């Protein structure tokens, strides 16, 4: 599949990018996408949740009253989970939510999502550009020229650019990633994907296509 390369004003450059045939498969890999998105979201969880159990709350361990003969229920100490201020039963404890999936599954998921975006014409290619200083207005103009002002967009560039990052970080419904940061969740969570010209070849190398 070939896509036309546009300049930052949305005009044709009379050049095209050819996507390798390996991007396209005869079947979908929905389960691979599910596993990769689940892994990505799990890795973002801090896992620092903690509640105090019976042995960790303050209070005396003395039995409140004798077992029998009071006419009331049997009670232990003041740290009983049934009492206000007592310990919590089976509360959350710190843990890691890390999931491991193999590299082939991860690449298969990203490739399959890009294939879907290409087939539904949700991918736009722009020529490479650089900023001498942060300028949010330029990013807004690019989105406006591509008619994506009201769309949730993901822009992928070849490598990290500090000025570009600073220009894009406060924009609503817009995310900027370099090719190394490409992930299935961001691809799925965007309506349109904007690829810089050089990022295409780098993505193909990362996904072991070229």
Write the layout of secondary structure elements.
Layout: E1 2-6, E2 12-18, H1 30-43, H2 103-119, E3 123-126, H3 136-145, E4 153-157, H4 162-168, E5 174-178, H5 184-188, E6 192-196, H6 197-206
Helix pairs in contact: 1-2, 3-4
| CA radius of gyration | 27 Å
End-to-end C-alpha gap: 15 Å
Strand percent estimate: 5-15%
The helix/strand class is alpha/beta
Largest sheet at a glance?
6 strands, mixed
Number of helices: 6
Strand order of the largest sheet: 2-1-3-6-4-5
Order of helices and strands: EEHHEHEHEHEH
Proportion of residues in helical segments: 25-40%
| Outline | elongated
Low-confidence stretches: none
Summarize the structure.
The protein is built from six helices and six strands, in the order E-E-H-H-E-H-E-H-E-H-E-H.
Written overview of the protein:
- The chain has helices at 30-43, 103-119, 136-145, 162-168, 184-188, 197-206; strands spanning 2-6, 12-18, 123-126, 153-157, 174-178, 192-196.
- It is α/β, with parallel strands linked by helices and 210 residues long.
- The protein has a 6-stranded mixed β-sheet.
- α4 (162-168) links the parallel β4 and β5.
- The longest helix has 17 residues, at 103-119.
- The mean pLDDT is 91.
Provide tags for this entry.
30% helix, single chain, 210 residues, elongated, 6 helices, alpha/beta
């Amino acid at each position: 599949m070939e896509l036309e390369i546009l300049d930052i004003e949305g005009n044709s450059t009379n050049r095209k990018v050819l996507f390798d045939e390996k991007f396209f498969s005869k079947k979908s890999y929905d389960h691979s996408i599910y596993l990769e998105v689940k892994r990505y979201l799990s890795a973002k969880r801090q896992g620092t949740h903690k509640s105090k159990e019976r042995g960790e709350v303050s209070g005396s361990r003395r039995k409140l009253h004798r077992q029998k003969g009071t006419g009331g229920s049997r009670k232990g100490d003041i740290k009983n989970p049934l009492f206000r201020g007592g310990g919590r039963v089976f509360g959350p404890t710190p843990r890691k939510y890390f999931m491991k999936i193999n590299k082939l599954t991860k690449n298969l998921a990203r490739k399959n999502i890009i294939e879907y975006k290409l087939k539904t014409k949700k991918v736009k290619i722009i020529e490479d550009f650089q900023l001498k200083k942060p300028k949010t207005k330029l990013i807004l103009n690019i989105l406006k020229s591509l008619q994506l002002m009201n769309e949730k967009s993901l822009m992928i560039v070849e490598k990290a650019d500090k000025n570009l990052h600073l220009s894009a970080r406060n924009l609503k419904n817009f995310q900027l990633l370099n090719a190394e940061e490409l992930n299935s969740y961001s691809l799925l969570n965007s309506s349109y994907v904007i690829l810089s010209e050089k990022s295409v070849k780098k993505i193909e190398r990362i996904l072991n296509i070229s």
